[in-house]
């Protein structure tokens, strides 16, 4: 029989156990081992059955057990110690509080998904896990962050397999009352709400749930409220589900509703208002429009409000391909804004202009969320050094006339939250060397270039640690594989072979991630005979654990999953290669530590960063990867292998896959497996152990989320806060008016004549070139521009590379034609083909970048030919 109504009945804890409730509701337990150990001691069997979720655990413990614990002095002492530790963590000064006072009072961090813990399944992949790690690291560092997201009633789908290996999706309904959340309430006890206006006089309302992630509040908007019609109730049903309008409404709720939720939260709690708004991908880009509307309501005009909003906004792009960006039909966007819908005081044309692809190669009728994000943010970044380069190329159309390397998009390489992803056994090994406080500090704050203490750990201890973690993984894999086969319809009598799956003494390779085609899940199957030889080698076998989900609408990805599952089902290899369905955080936390090799073989350069290999590295797992994302930046032969790539322009995709798969097999056969199995004089694989040691000591400090968040604070949040403070209403109006004047006058800005002190086409190294340039500034003056000489080596087409920029200075007054003279010196500091050019850029003290307006004036083709600007 099915219930006609559902309740959540919460336990009544004895007074002495009340701190358990506070510990359960603060998600710090998800990365704090002592807190988890405390909950496990409440009832070990129910702890395991609850999925290691303290809220579910406390809801299932019998009253008699609680009564017994309330009288257990030893347990109460442990409880007091852990609760006191949380209080100190929440209230004490941390890294941020020791920094200069000009840091922002608060930062609002918006993301469509957050992977904080498996107990709060609101993530689909790397973007959400990265966002969760960002919040945790900010908490550890004391950064006053406010997270903002949506609460999806179905979360992301659960994955199972049919008998023939086809992915099947299931969407369990989540009850917020059974999650580690509390409802944000008004002083009278009613739920706090935000509302968006919809076309036709309708409204989209949402409640605000609060997840406490250590020191960081995470606000999650939930449209499943009785006041909404059925359609509006379903806006927050599924992560990345539904059609275009559904996605648009989700992103309006996240951006516009999210800002309103932040204002409500600050009003109700007294939390400082954010000075900086950080949007993690374009999904939350509408937040800038809401902030413009706030300023317009306070009396600012649109252009001044736009400048004020841009000054305090940071935009992070995570995609290396245009297809990964949300784009909407302009008519759909137009219908949801304006007098009869949301933000009625803002002209719909101004809204559309922010997102339209008005550049060569753009689609003029599509509204691009990343383009809007870039236009609404004064600071933007990619998520690895390589991805920064890719992003500057991809979005260069927004800054016409500038070389890609001058496009104002920087990069902050992602990191991972070590306390979440480092196995307790690894942490204990480090803590034995340097003590628990120093080990905790090293994993959270970071700051050192290398962890030298790893050098003092004996080889035997490192090898025993690695084997122990591998053994744990073998146990975990067998349990999950048996459950998966039962779900696929196998009976217990058919599954005796599962007890022989994997071997704790065999080289173990892990591959786990989402399954879009560019990540090439099945590259390892390219030559099945060679793969089989590797798996079944009599002296040097390998075993592979694979996991991953394809998007529900991606049948191509599902076919890849099925292809791999069918291979893994082959009785000849099923003890050496397994596919585990329903990849998520709980599985990942066992998988990363237990593998010896982490495999990553995307199509370069389509992996923006890729953080799974970072989590593996922190546990002493070596990376075997294409040089993409973060691995391109930090690879060294001391701690891993680079898979060669076939990047030639003319290489056909099949041929490319064949070449790169062959390179992968070669590496495994000739270099990886011999190193794992060869033994030194001590009887241990000492060369392998040395690579593990180098991975921990050299890569460990780099891949930390603490390092990443400190970079965001120092390079993006602090400058954004200073810019925000300098952008008072008068300054914002001044900058907006200046930009309008410069744009109107720019057609009259010209480089008219260039004279040099050397006329020959040959010059000696160290020669100083005197330059005199005449420029036309039209309606502008020298205070409005920078005149520069740009020089460097040139290629066969006279393109300048590795450029040096030298400013020229105005001399005297304008001549009778209104032209200004500029002079300067250029030192020829490099040999070989060398060239220079002259350009004019807008200049204003409130600009974050001279490329901000996308305006540049240079010499005409005729002037270039006449001047002989090229030095050889």
UniProtKB/TrEMBL annotation:
Claim: Heme is one of the keywords in the record: no
What keywords sit in the KW lines?
Allosteric enzyme, Carbohydrate metabolism, Glycosyltransferase, Pyridoxal phosphate, Transferase
Question: Where N6-(pyridoxal phosphate)lysine occurs along the chain?
Answer: 615
What is catalysed by this protein? [(1->4)-alpha-D-glucosyl](n) + phosphate = [(1->4)-alpha-D-glucosyl](n-1) + alpha-D-glucose 1-phosphate
What SUPFAM superfamilies does this protein map onto? UDP-Glycosyltransferase/glycogen phosphorylase
All residue ranges annotated as the DUF3417 domain in the record: 13-120
Amino-acid biosynthesis as a keyword of this entry, yes or no, is no
The GO terms describing molecular function are:
glycogen phosphorylase activity; pyridoxal phosphate binding
What are the EC numbers? Answer: 2.4.1.1
Any one biological process term the GO annotation gives: carbohydrate metabolic process
Role noted for this protein: Phosphorylase is an important allosteric enzyme in carbohydrate metabolism. Enzymes from different sources differ in their regulatory mechanisms and in their natural substrates. However, all known phosphorylases share catalytic and structural properties.
- Stated family: Belongs to the glycogen phosphorylase family.
Q: NCBIfam families under this entry? A: more_P_ylases
| Database matches in PANTHER family | GLYCOGEN PHOSPHORYLASE
Q: What is this protein called?
A: glycogen phosphorylase
Q: Which organism is it from?
A: Streptomyces violarus
């Amino acid at each position: 029989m099915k219930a006609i109504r559902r309740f959540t009945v919460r336990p009544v804890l004895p007074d002495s156990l009340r701190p358990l409730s506070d510990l359960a509701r603060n998600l710090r337990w998800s990365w704090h081992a002592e807190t988890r150990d405390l909950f496990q001691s409440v009832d070990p069997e129910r702890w395991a059955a609850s999925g290691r979720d303290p809220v579910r655990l406390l809801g299932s413990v019998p009253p008699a057990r609680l009564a017994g614990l309330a009288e257990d002095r030893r347990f109460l002492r442990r409880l007091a110690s852990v609760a006191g530790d949380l209080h100190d963590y929440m209230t004490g000064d941390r890294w941020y509080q020791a920094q200069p006072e000009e840091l922002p009072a608060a930062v609002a961090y918006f993301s469509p998904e957050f992977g904080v813990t498996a107990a709060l399944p609101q993530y689909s992949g790397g973007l959400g896990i990265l966002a969760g790690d960002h919040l945790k690291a900010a908490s550890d560092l004391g950064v006053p962050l406010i997270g903002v997201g949506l609460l999806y009633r179905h979360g992301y789908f659960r994955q199972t397999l049919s008998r023939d290996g086809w992915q099947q999706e299931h969407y369990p309904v989540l009850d917020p009352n059974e999650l580690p959340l509390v409802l944000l309430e008004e002083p009278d006890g009613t739920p706090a709400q935000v509302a968006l206006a919809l076309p036709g006089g309708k409204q989209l309302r949402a409640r605000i749930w609060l997840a406490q992630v250590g020191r960081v509040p995470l606000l999650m908007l939930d449209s499943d409220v009785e006041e909404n019609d059925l359609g509006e109730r379903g806006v927050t049903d599924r992560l990345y589900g539904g059609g275009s309008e559904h996605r648009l409404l989700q992103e309006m709720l996240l951006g516009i509703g999210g800002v309103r939720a932040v204002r409500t939260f600050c009003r109700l709690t007294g939390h400082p208002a954010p000075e900086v708004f950080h949007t993690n991908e374009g999904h939350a880009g509408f937040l800038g429009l809401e902030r413009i509307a706030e300023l317009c309501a306070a009396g600012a005009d649109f252009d001044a409000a736009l400048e004020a909003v841009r000054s305090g906004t940071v935009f992070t792009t995570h995609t290396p391909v245009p297809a990964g960006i949300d784009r909407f039909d302009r008519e759909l966007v137009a219908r949801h804004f304006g007098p009869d819908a949301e933000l009625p005081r803002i002209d719909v044309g101004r809204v559309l202009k922010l997102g339209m692809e008005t550049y060569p190669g753009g689609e003029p009728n599509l509204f691009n969320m990343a383009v809007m994000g870039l236009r609404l943010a004064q600071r933007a970044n990619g998520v690895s050094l390589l991805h920064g380069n890719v992003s500057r190329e991809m979005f260069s159309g927004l800054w016409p006339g500038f070389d890609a390397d001058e496009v104002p998009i920087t990069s902050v390489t992602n990191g991972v939250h070590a306390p979440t992803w480092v196995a307790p056994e690894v942490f204990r090994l480090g803590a034995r060397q340097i003590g628990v406080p120093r080990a905790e500090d090293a994993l959270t704050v970071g700051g050192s270039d290398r962890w030298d203490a790893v050098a003092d750990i004996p080889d035997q201890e490192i090898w025993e640690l690695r084997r122990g973690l591998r053994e744990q993984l073998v146990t975990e894999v067998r349990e999950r594989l048996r459950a998966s086969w039962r779900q696929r319809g196998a009976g217990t009598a058919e599954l005796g072979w599962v007890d022989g799956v994997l071997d704790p003494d065999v080289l173990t390779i892990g591959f786990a991630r989402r399954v879009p085609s560019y990540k090439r899940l099945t590259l390892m199957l390219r030559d099945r005979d060679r793969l089989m030889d590797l798996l079944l080698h009599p002296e040097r076998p390998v075993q592979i654990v694979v996991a991953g989900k394809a998007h529900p609408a991606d049948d191509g990805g599902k076919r890849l999953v099925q292809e791999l599952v069918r291979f893994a089902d082959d009785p000849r290899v099923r003890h050496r290669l397994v596919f585990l369905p329903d990849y998520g955080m709980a599985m990942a936390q066992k998988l990363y530590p237990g593998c010896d090799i982490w495999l990553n073989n995307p199509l370069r350069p389509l992996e923006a960063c890729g953080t799974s290999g970072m989590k593996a590295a922190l546990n002493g797992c070596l990376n075997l990867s294409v040089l993409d994302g973060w691995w391109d930046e930090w690879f060294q032969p001391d701690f891993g292998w680079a898979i060669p790539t076939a990047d030639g322009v003319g290489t056909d995709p099949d041929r490319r896959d064949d070449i790169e798969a062959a390179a992968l097999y070669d590496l495994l056969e000739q270099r990886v497996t011999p190193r794992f199995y060869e033994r030194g004089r001590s009887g241990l694989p000492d060369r392998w152990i040395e690579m593990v040691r180098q991975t921990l000591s050299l890569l460990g400090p780099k891949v930390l989320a603490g390092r990443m968040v400190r970079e965001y604070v120092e390079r993006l949040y602090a400058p954004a806060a200073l810019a925000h403070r300098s952008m008072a209403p008068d300054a914002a109006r001044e900058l907006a008016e200046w930009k309008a004047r410069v744009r109107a006058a720019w057609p009259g800005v010209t480089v008219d004549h260039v004279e040099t002190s050397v006329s020959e086409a040959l010059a000696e190294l160290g020669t100083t070139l005197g330059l005199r340039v005449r420029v036309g500034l039209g309606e502008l003056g020298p205070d409005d521009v920078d005149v520069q000489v740009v020089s460097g080596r040139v290629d066969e087409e006279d393109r300048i590379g590795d450029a040096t920029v030298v400013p020229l200075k105005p001399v005297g007054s304008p001549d009778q034609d209104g032209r200004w003279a500029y002079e300067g010196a250029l030192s020829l500091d490099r040999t070989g083909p060398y060239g220079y050019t002259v350009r004019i850029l807008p200049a204003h003290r409130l600009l974050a970048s001279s490329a901000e307006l996308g305006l540049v004036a240079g010499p005409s083709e005729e002037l270039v030919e006449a001047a002989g600007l090229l030095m050889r």
